[in-house]
Amino acid sequence: MTISTSDADLIRKRARELGFDVCRFTEVESAWPAGARLAEYVAQGRHGEMGWMADTLERRAHPRAMWDGARSAVVLGMNYGPQHDPLTLLDHPTRGMISVYAQGDDYHELIKGRLKQLASFMAAQHPAELKVFVDTAPLMEKPLAERAGLGWQGKHTNLVSREFGSWLFLGVILTALDLPPDPAGQDHCGQCHACLDACPTKAFPAPYQLDARRCISYLTIELKGPIPTEFRPALGNRIYGCDDCLAVCPWNKFASDAREKRLHARQALKEPRLSDLVQLDDPTFRLLFAKGPVKRIGRDRFIRNVLYAIGNSGDSGATVVVEPLLADPDPTVRGAAVWALSRLHEAAAFEALRAAHLPAETDPGVRAEWTLPDPHIA
Question: Which of 264, 295, 319 is the last residue of a domain?
């Protein structure tokens, strides 16, 4: 069924009423170079421990590999840009930095409910099969968004919009309808490489390429177990995700002033004290992050991140709340506590802790943390 331009405009109008900032259309039947690029990315091992990328390669190869009946995609964006530069928190090392998108309710749920309402509206107007996607299914939203003209994939591999900078949540509705396609997005990065320069761990081997194994978002969210020692100092006080490459994008200055109503950050998550966060047990962790995306990594991985940040903070007073974690049931937490204390204590005090705890430690990974080179020796 082919939809007229006027009917397509009604879909856009309803999308705006539901709180989406942009709604555009694209066909999904032509060639899909993004699938080959993803296959090469996985073949190079740059996906790290994200095994689901390799497992779902075939379904990501083309939008119609997800659903053969798809003819068009409705691609929607919701601006979540912060009112203030999130990178200013780097100047306050005793406070934890949580990625802007994760400071409020889980955006998957926020977007999914509105997508379903829009899908219901479309089905009522034009009975045809459709499917809704919000980042959790093996559908490549960013290339679809570029093809639909929401923006382009920048040198940091995220979507960039001339209207909303690097701050867009994306959602997709695949439909059996033939919708009038919008012009594809054009790259406007030019000679700018601010996002590449801003990366603390040099996770971009080249423009438009990302090695997730070096990315702080991957390291603090996806990676299980200890974070490699070479990256720990670069984490700074980033305890969940990293906004550096997004926040420095020059196109952010054109983002709409109507951002505040889209995503409400919780006050407790804007500038939390690391010394408070490190004391969370599982029930208090779940309570603090209820309805938010941080809860998905679990208490132990989160405390691991907080401990590395404390180790980078220079706050020797935090040793009082870190030392009890040397007896934590989780070995990754114990190991991170060892690393933090090795950087905060004077050499003699740390040696006394090692003498007290190392003999009873049975986990080889934690024992290795106790025997790392002395950080006090240049």
Answer: 264
Mark whether 20 and 38 lie in a shared domain.
yes
Contact (Cβ atoms closer than 8 angstroms) between residue 161 and residue 22: yes
Decide the pairing of beta strands 72-79 and 159-160: unpaired
pLDDT value for 339: 98
**242 near 90, Cβ under 8 Å?**
no
9 is catalytic: no
Strand pairing report for 97-98 and 238-240:
parallel
Instruction: Give CA–CA dist 245/282, Å, rounded.
Output: 31
Residues facing 173 on adjacent strands: 74, 132
Cα torsion at 358, 363, 368, 370 (round to 10°)?
A: -30
Q: What pLDDT score does 262 carry? A: 58
What's the pLDDT score for residue 260?
A: 45
Prediction pTM value: 0.93
- Range(s) of the domain holding residue 323: 273-378
Q: What residues of the chain score a pLDDT lower than 50?
A: 258-261, 378
CA distance linking residue 51 with residue 60, whole number of Å? 14
Same domain? 340 vs 244:
no
Same domain, 213 and 330: no
Q: How many CB atoms lie within 10 A of CB 221?
A: 20
DSSP character for 221?
I
The structural domain count of the chain equals: 2
Q: Name the active-site residue from 85, 91, 105, 135.
A: 135
